[in-house]
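Thread amino acids onto this structure.
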């Protein structure tokens, strides 16, 4: 099947035929599939309850490159605040559900990547320190030197445990990611056993999930995301 559709990904340990609501044993997901056979899968983590047009465009563009793109609705549990982010066991449970959904459809584990923005970029980083996936990309990941929540480790402390090649994209003028902290993260990820690359752009024009597609830095950042997955998901 190609195109965009919604589905449910069972949590591990739940019955795949479970008819309980999403807050039970299943994660609601949005899927964008490519034409023909998929070359791998990318789990897109996002922190809003709605997809922006730019984020949908990015997902469609990734599918156009041959990836099956799957975006879980992380805030499907009734007591979760979308302003805080989803971390800890619940993050890994939801990611594992997406991972299993992909592998059940023939996607090889080492061709599965994760992509996230802002606090979801933090989540993508932490997934890459806890799961042996193919590659990870974080854009404007917060919580570099201090954890965002009690369930999220600071990135500089988690960095040596990276299990997947990781790309980090940051804006030099982003108050949530000061350049000095980004430099600390660059040094910390260099001590991991996997490849890493940290790229800083002037200003804030580095977001492939915004409407800045005509900005040269935004185009460059999207190209870097595509190239990172292309190089590491094999």
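Threaded sequence (234 positions):
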């Amino acid at each position: 099947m190609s195109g965009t559709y919604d589905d449910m990904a069972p949590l591990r340990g739940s019955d795949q035929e479970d008819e309980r609501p999403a807050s039970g044993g299943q994660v609601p997901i949005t899927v964008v599939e490519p034409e023909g056979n998929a070359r791998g899968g990318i789990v897109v983590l996002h922190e809003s309850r709605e997809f922006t047009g730019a984020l949908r465009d990015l997902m469609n563009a990734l599918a156009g490159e041959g990836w099956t793109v799957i975006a879980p609705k992380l805030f499907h549990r009734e007591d979760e605040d979308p302003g805080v982010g989803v971390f800890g066991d619940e993050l890994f449970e939801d990611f594992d559900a997406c991972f299993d959904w992909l592998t059940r459809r023939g996607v090889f584990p080492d061709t599965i990547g994760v992509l996230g923005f802002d606090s979801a970029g933090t989540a993508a980083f932490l997934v890459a320190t806890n799961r042996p996936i193919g590659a990870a990309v974080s854009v404007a990941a917060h919580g570099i030197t201090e954890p965002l929540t009690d369930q999220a480790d600071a990135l500089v402390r988690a960095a040596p445990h990276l299990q997947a090649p990781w790309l980090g994209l940051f804006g030099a003028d982003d108050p949530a990611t000061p350049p000095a902290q980004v430099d600390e993260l660059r040094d910390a990820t260099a001590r991991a056993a996997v490849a890493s690359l940290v790229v800083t752009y002037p200003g804030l024009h580095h977001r492939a999930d915004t409407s800045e597609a005509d900005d040269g830095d935004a185009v460059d950042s999207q190209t870097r995301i595509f190239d990172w997955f292309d190089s590491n998901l094999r």
